[in-house]
Ligand-binding protein SH3 (Deinococcus arcticus), 138 residues
Amino acid sequence: MNFKNWGFSALLWGILAVSGAATAAQAVTTSKVNLRQYLGSVSRVIAVLPANAALTVQFCTGGWCKVTYGRFYGYVAQTYLRMMPSGPRLNSVPSASRSALYFANCGAARAAGKAPLFRGSPGYRAALDRDGDGRACE
């Protein structure tokens, strides 16, 4: 690689590093939660984090957040995180669009043809998920 291309690569990596640092925020876990290697509940569990564990959140997407906890890093379901108010806003779905679909109970979700509901999807909430497996109104 010649010097001109090397300089461009260094500039690009510098921009990515700065933009990544700008989106990091602090959060705590709301209960004991699995830290997973990749997005999704079928991914390998790297560690089990305790309730009230302080995390650094890099970004959130599809109901999952990429986090760092001590020497571990991976993904945690966003429903198990409480974002700290002092941090910057994350690249995530606005809460208004998340709450646009609400079911009072599983009967209402079934009547609307939306059951089962999966963690991270519109309409899902922990109160509808009796066994905590990420699948509500089974």
